[in-house]
């Protein structure tokens, strides 16, 4: 971390914050996954409501151009971007607070950063509102109704402030190992959008969805503010993990040995970070501009893939932007779920690197990459095999026609090819930014992927339409993932065993290809979309799991066994009231 000094191993003091137990990690991942699934399902409900009420035409294209603002804001301020800066900064402040000396470093960090960031968020939101006509013209020059898109953009621009505050709260809470409220924000967000569309849709048309974005952003902040206030102003804790079960979990973990969530035991004493004597990390030391700039530029560069897609699709017939949007929203669900473990372990990784424990960090990264890849490839195979049935069941009603279903399903199958690349980028980029030192390599890797996306998309859009745009997205993000994986090293990131990781990744890739082909064949033989989806999904799952076992993939099974043991161990103690 900036402002911290690394002490020699033989003189290293004990770690300021004890590593979380495997039981805590398992429960945190479960809570995050459950609430993320709920948020994703509500996101599907939001897209279903949009398709049902407004179809896939000029109105939805106009709104989806305005939707670019919350998409970019979410990436910059909540999901990636600021989280890569603030989580390590708050982790260091929490470690200093654990020492219990001097002023509260967490409060000092909030006092030095939150007012300045809030002013910046307000300024950017006002700028977007004033420049909405120019922004719409730049994003979608071929849009038939730019006026509607401008109105929606001005409404969605308010999310810059609300998302910024929500992302700040999420980073602070995760550094304190509080995952419930941050995981619930998209439940609140999508609830606000769905409610606004049904309440105001008849009167305001698609503008009601933009109003919902503004309302949902406020709900995201409200969902986290009470929990953050308790961490800032409540009774001081000696360590961030204060659940009543922490001691019991630690005892059980010691008795049962290492966990696949924790990785193998490291017998050598970790090198600890000697925390500076200053009472709190300040904006100058812990959140330096040199650290913020590459993080935000990477996140913005990554999100520009969507901007490129909509720019190219604006020249195609009406509905092209909508088809891309619906396909992308469904296809990205496996990626979102597969990265839940990485979200939970990000503060753990930052702590390990702050303490100089490279071995623990490497084991953590390799385990996260293996588990996330196995999970997303299962989802990608299912999406590819059952795309027509999924889209038909989710969207084909009201103004969304069978032709829209066919076009969206085709795009979604192409998107599924790039899901592994998206997941690897999400998992690996955390390792570059978690060390708390500036690095521009992720931005260079993402820029190379964007160049590939732009060139391939521009060259294929006339011949292949939306399929060419989706293919460009998949190829571009795969290029970025390959560059990030090849660049892992002690100088830039965590020095993982790259050849071993690539070899292990090839196994689930082969299993997913075979499972997707088998699932698509079975689904195509059934007329009923419900039965076809069931047959295809079951075939994909069975074939994939069997091939993982045959190929000797061991990344996922131990985690499931650990989770099962954790549940069954608690069953005898459950009391029904």
UniProtKB/TrEMBL annotation:
<feature type="transmembrane region" description="Helical">
    <location>
        <begin position="206"/>
        <end position="229"/>
    </location>
</feature>
<keyword id="KW-0812">Transmembrane</keyword>
<protein>
    <submittedName>
        <fullName>Murein biosynthesis protein MurJ</fullName>
    </submittedName>
</protein>
<keyword id="KW-0472">Membrane</keyword>
<feature type="transmembrane region" description="Helical">
    <location>
        <begin position="369"/>
        <end position="391"/>
    </location>
</feature>
<dbReference type="InterPro" id="IPR051050">
    <property type="entry name" value="Lipid_II_flippase_MurJ/MviN"/>
</dbReference>
<feature type="transmembrane region" description="Helical">
    <location>
        <begin position="24"/>
        <end position="44"/>
    </location>
</feature>
<feature type="transmembrane region" description="Helical">
    <location>
        <begin position="440"/>
        <end position="458"/>
    </location>
</feature>
<feature type="transmembrane region" description="Helical">
    <location>
        <begin position="180"/>
        <end position="200"/>
    </location>
</feature>
<feature type="transmembrane region" description="Helical">
    <location>
        <begin position="464"/>
        <end position="488"/>
    </location>
</feature>
<feature type="transmembrane region" description="Helical">
    <location>
        <begin position="117"/>
        <end position="143"/>
    </location>
</feature>
<dbReference type="Pfam" id="PF03023">
    <property type="entry name" value="MurJ"/>
</dbReference>
<feature type="transmembrane region" description="Helical">
    <location>
        <begin position="532"/>
        <end position="551"/>
    </location>
</feature>
<feature type="transmembrane region" description="Helical">
    <location>
        <begin position="411"/>
        <end position="433"/>
    </location>
</feature>
<feature type="compositionally biased region" description="Low complexity">
    <location>
        <begin position="244"/>
        <end position="255"/>
    </location>
</feature>
<dbReference type="InterPro" id="IPR004268">
    <property type="entry name" value="MurJ"/>
</dbReference>
<feature type="transmembrane region" description="Helical">
    <location>
        <begin position="155"/>
        <end position="173"/>
    </location>
</feature>
<feature type="region of interest" description="Disordered">
    <location>
        <begin position="244"/>
        <end position="267"/>
    </location>
</feature>
<keyword id="KW-1003">Cell membrane</keyword>
<feature type="transmembrane region" description="Helical">
    <location>
        <begin position="509"/>
        <end position="526"/>
    </location>
</feature>
<keyword id="KW-0133">Cell shape</keyword>
<keyword id="KW-0573">Peptidoglycan synthesis</keyword>
<keyword id="KW-1133">Transmembrane helix</keyword>
């Amino acid at each position: 971390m900036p402002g911290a000094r690394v002490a020699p191993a033989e003189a290293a003091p004990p770690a300021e914050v004890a590593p979380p137990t495997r039981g805590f990690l398992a429960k945190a991942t479960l809570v995050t996954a459950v609430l993320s699934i709920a948020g994703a399902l509500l996101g599907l409900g939001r897209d279903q409501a949009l398709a049902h009420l407004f179809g896939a035409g000029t109105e939805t294209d106009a709104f989806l151009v305005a939707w670019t603002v919350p998409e970019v804001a979410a990436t910059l301020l909540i999901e990636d971007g600021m989280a890569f800066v603030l989580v390590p900064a708050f982790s260091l402040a929490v470690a200093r607070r654990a020492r219990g000396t001097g002023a509260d470093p967490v409060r000092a960090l909030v006092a030095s950063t939150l007012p300045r960031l809030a002013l910046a968020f307000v300024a950017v939101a006002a700028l977007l509102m004033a420049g909405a006509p120019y922004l719409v013209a730049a994003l979608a020059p071929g849009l038939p109704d730019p006026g509607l898109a401008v109105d929606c953009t001005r409404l969605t621009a308010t999310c810059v402030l609300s998302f910024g505050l929500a992302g700040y709260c999420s980073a602070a809470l995760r550094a304190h190992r509080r995952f419930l409220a941050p995981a619930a924000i998209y439940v609140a967000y999508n609830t606000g959008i769905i409610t606004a569309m049904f309440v105001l849709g008849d009167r305001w048309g698609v503008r009601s969805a933009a109003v919902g974005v503004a309302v949902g952003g406020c709900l995201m902040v409200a969902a986290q503010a009470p929990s953050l206030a308790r961490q800032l102003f409540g009774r001081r804790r000696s360590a961030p993990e204060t659940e009543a079960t922490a001691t019991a979990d630690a005892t059980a973990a010691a008795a049962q040995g290492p966990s696949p969530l924790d990785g193998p035991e490291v017998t050598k004493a970790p090198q600890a970070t000697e925390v500076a004597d200053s009472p709190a990390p300040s904006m100058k030391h812990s959140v330096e501009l040199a650290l913020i700039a590459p993080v935000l530029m990477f996140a913005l560069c990554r999100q520009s893939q969507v901007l490129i897609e909509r720019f190219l699709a604006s020249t195609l017939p009406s509905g092209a932007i909508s088809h891309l949007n619906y396909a992308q929203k469904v296809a990205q669900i496996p990626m979102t779920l597969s990265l839940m473990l990485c979200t939970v372990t990000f503060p753990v990784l930052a702590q390990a690197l702050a303490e100089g424990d490279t071995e623990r960090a490497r084991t953590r990264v390799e385990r996260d990459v293996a588990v996330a890849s196995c999970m997303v490839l299962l989802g990608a195979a299912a999406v590819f095999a059952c795309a027509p049935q999924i889209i038909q069941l989710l969207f084909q009603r009201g103004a969304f026609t069978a032709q829209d279903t066919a076009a969206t399903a085709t795009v979604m199958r192409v998107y599924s090819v790039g899901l592994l690349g998206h997941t690897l980028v999400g998992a690996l980029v955390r390792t570059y930014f978690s060390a708390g030192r500036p690095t521009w390599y992720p931005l260079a890797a993402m820029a190379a992927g964007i160049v590939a996306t732009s060139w391939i998309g521009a060259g294929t859009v006339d011949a292949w339409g939306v399929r060419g745009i989706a293919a460009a997205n998949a190829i571009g993000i795969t290029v970025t993932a390959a560059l990030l994986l090849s660049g892992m090293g002690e100088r830039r990131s965590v020095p993982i065993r790259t050849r071993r990781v690539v070899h292990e990744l090839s196994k689930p890739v082969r299993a997913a290809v075979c499972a997707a082909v088998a699932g698509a064949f079975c689904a195509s033989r059934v007329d009923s979309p419900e039965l076809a989806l069931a047959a295809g999904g079951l075939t994909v799952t069975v074939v994939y799991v069997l091939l993982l076992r045959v190929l000797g993939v061991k990344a996922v099974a131990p985690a499931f066994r650990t989770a099962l043991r954790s549940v069954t161990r608690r069953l005898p103690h459950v009391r029904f009231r």
